[in-house]
Amino acid sequence: MSLVANTGKLAGRTLFITGASRGIGKAIALKAAKDGANVVVAAKTAEPHPKLPGTIYTAAEEIEALGGKALPCIVDVRDEKQVQKAIDEAVKKFNGIDILVNNASAISLTGTEQTDMKRYDLMHNINTRGTFLASKLCVPHLKNSNHAHILNLSPPLNMSPHWFSIHVAYTMAKYGMSMCVLGMSEEFKPYNIGVNALWPKTAIATAAIEMLTGDTSTSRKPEIVSDAAYAMLCRDPKIYTGNFAIDEDVVKEAGVKDLTPYACDPSNINNLLPDFFLDVPGEAAAKKPSGGQIPTLFDAIGKSITPDLVKKTQAVFQFNVKGKEEGVWHLDLKNGDGACGQGEPKNAPDATLTMDSNNFADMFAGKLKPATAFMMGKLKISGDLQKAMKLEKMMKSLKNKV
Fold first, then answer.
1. Which of 57, 120, 170, 230 is catalytic?
2. Which of 31, 59, 346, 362 could be stapled to 367 by a disulfide with Cβ–Cβ 3.0 to 4.6 Å?
3. How confident is the model at residue 39 (pLDDT cuts 50, 70, 90)?
4. 170 classed as catalytic
5. Which secondary-structure segment (H or E) carries 123?
């Protein structure tokens, strides 16, 4: 499902793509394969993962089935020797490298106190260091190409404190990739190497989003990103460099007028989940103050609790409400017949949700999805993220009653 036509511009070109065994990396590989490109599938997954689809070998088969040539390489981007070995094999097999796509990434949406240093190191070693390492080792070969590109899957550098406050470790690791674009685009101009960043406007249906939200109905398909990447990689690197592009803008420039086919669920095209690091226009506008909605809300929730809801949810929630109706509330959908009301829960919460009272009311009225609120930073979650996201299903059943 591609809306940007292949032009053959990448025929015979060699792409080195990190994290290409699944998701966005694989989608970019398949799009290039249709031109007859050579693709180095540089990823860790050699054996099938119990929960995640695809290995470097299955991705290589798909690339070759579409008319490309593939070289599957077991690469952990944290390991300099593995990256160098894969580059050497690529140069030996395909006589060079034209394009590097830094796609491999690790994510943990945790606050400072909740981020253990093992996760911190993983994110920084894969995202920032891995991008820097792969770029450093590919550059000698890119200098020999007459169509050299580095493309990082990383966000525009947005210095709003908000994006740092909600998951500073992850933000630093992703912005490290973006800073590579900022520096290297200028550094490698004399060698005609285009260095750019690409970031999705909305959530993309990948294993990561499914893991975070349990739902891809408010996401777009990876093909919008691969179409955008393809359009960018076909451009003249001598002129096109130093850009922080957004997938939606790129495909529109490439002539796509209707973005509906990219949506996983076309009925949700006006309710797509915005991606991190992108400010939503009009968000800063002041909202009308609300009346005392929360006691009424919890009264209605209390009447809607059923044994079946307790059995399905099996979680205790604490709500720290800020703003006009500041206070602590709880919802126990784990013990006995369930309970809700003001104050902390009797049993330890599985997830604690912190948000402004206006947003809280919108969330329970079905106007604001928990996943959307979380991605936009309107909702902070500590504890079990997956259990917190169970609220979404529960709210659908409450929506008619509240």
1. 170
2. 362
3. very high
4. yes
5. helix 117-123
